[in-house]
Amino acid sequence: MFFIVMIHQALAYRVPSMEQVRVFEVDQPRTLVVKQKKLKKMLRILPKRVTFVETDLNVHKLERTLV
User: Fold this and answer.
1) Based on C-alpha coordinates, what's the Rg of the chain?
2) Any domain includes 18
3) Is 13 among the domain residues?
4) What is the full DSSP assignment across 24-52?
5) Is residue 49 part of a domain?
6) Which of 20, 33, 42, 61 is the most buried (most CB within 10 A)?
7) Going residue by residue through the chain (67 aa), what tens digit of pLDDT does each one get?
8) How many helices (H) and strands (E) does the chain have?
9) Cα separation, 32 vs 44, whole angstroms
10) How far is CA 11 from its chain centroid?
11) Has residue 32 been placed in a domain?
């Protein structure tokens, strides 16, 4: 099972049942930097189950980005 995060809601980090789910944070490069900083501050360590994917969904399709 996996979970794709495309808005900054932190659901994957707040819900205990999500701890076993692979998470893909998909966003603009600059936005991902901000998200990572906030998550590090909140969690101290970024979970290994989370993959940060830089893309511009106005230019690239999600399915091509995750290949």
Assistant:
1) 12
2) no
3) no
4) EEEE-HHHHHHHHHHHHHHHSS--TTEEE
5) yes
6) 33
7) 555 555 556 777 777 887 888 888 888 889 889 889 988 888 888 888 888 888 887 787 777 777 7
8) 3, 3
9) 16
10) 10
11) yes
> For residues 35 and 61, what is the distance between their CA atoms, to the nearest angstrom?
21
The rounded distance, in Å, linking the Cα atoms of 4 and 25 is: 6
Q: Which amino acid is at 18?
A: M
pLDDT for 56 equals 81
Rounded to whole angstroms, the Cα distance separating 20 from 45 reads: 16
Q: Is the CA virtual torsion 60, 49, 47, 17 positive or negative?
A: positive
Range of the domain at 32: 2-7+23-65
| Rounded-to-integer distance, Cα 21 and Cα 64, Å | 22
3-state SS class at 55 = coil
Rounded Cα distance, 14 and 54, in Å:
22
State how many domains the chain has: 1
Task: Output the six-digit token pair for 7.
Answer: 């808005």
